[in-house]
Amino acid sequence: MRFLLQYLMLLAVAGAILWLIVRPRPADSSPSTPAMLDPETTQQPTGKRYPVQKSDAEWQAQLDPLAYQVTRRKGTERAFTGLYYNHHERGTYTCICCGQPLFASDDKFDSGTGWPSYTRPIAPQAVEEETDRSYGMVRTEVHCSRCGAHLGHVFPDGPRPTGLRYCINSVSLGFEPAK
Fold first, then answer.
1. How many structural domains are present in the chain?
2. Which of 55, 99, 103, 106 keeps 20 to 30 A from 126, CA to CA?
3. Annotated catalytic residue, options 95, 98, 144, 167
């Protein structure tokens, strides 16, 4: 019985620590806050300028609060809550910020993660990758090559033919049905 109580206390402490790491944070305290982005343009920390340029105020006016937090501040929506994680219509997934085609429905698969997953972008130049070292992990971030919007991450655990899993936030995407 004593062992069980110690185990439960350890789980509670681990859960509290995990919550502190992944809890939602105000925009001014997250690791990817406006301090990392030029407030007047969509300039990523790498210094790259994108073809579609808007001020922070323009992005906030265009996007709903969650889409803004995810795409412009590198946030993440909760798993299994997005519009497209269980979406099976044929068509093209586009960037919610600039409309650039990003992923084809033919490359979408159910990864079981709660986010839409794709084996590859619609064209190699549609997305760009960058190393993400936030939250004590090293991952590969994926963003739109036209406007710099944060889309999600790519992992090397996907199905054939690429072996990649582009794990993308639904709120970062729009959808154009096939005609």
1. 1
2. 55
3. 167
Give 125: exposed, middle or buried? Use CB within 10 Å, 0-12, 13-18, 19+: exposed
Q: Indicate the residue type of 172.
A: S
Percentage above 90 pLDDT, the chain: 70
- How many angstroms separate the CA atoms of 135 and 18, rounded? 10
Would residue 25 count as lying in a domain? no
Length of the chain in residues, anyone? 179
Q: Is residue 79 part of a domain?
A: yes
Active site residue 95: no
- In a domain, residue 58? The reply is yes
75-118 residue pLDDT tens: 999 999 999 999 999 999 999 999 999 999 999 999 999 999 99
Query: Domain range spanning residue 60?
Result: 31-177
Per-residue pLDDT reduced to its tens digit, 9-51? 666 666 656 555 555 544 443 333 332 333 333 434 456 789 9
Which helix or strand (DSSP H or E) is residue 14 part of? helix 2-22
CATH number at residue 79: 2.170.150.20
Q: The pTM is what? A: 0.74
- Six-digit token string for 162: 């690429």
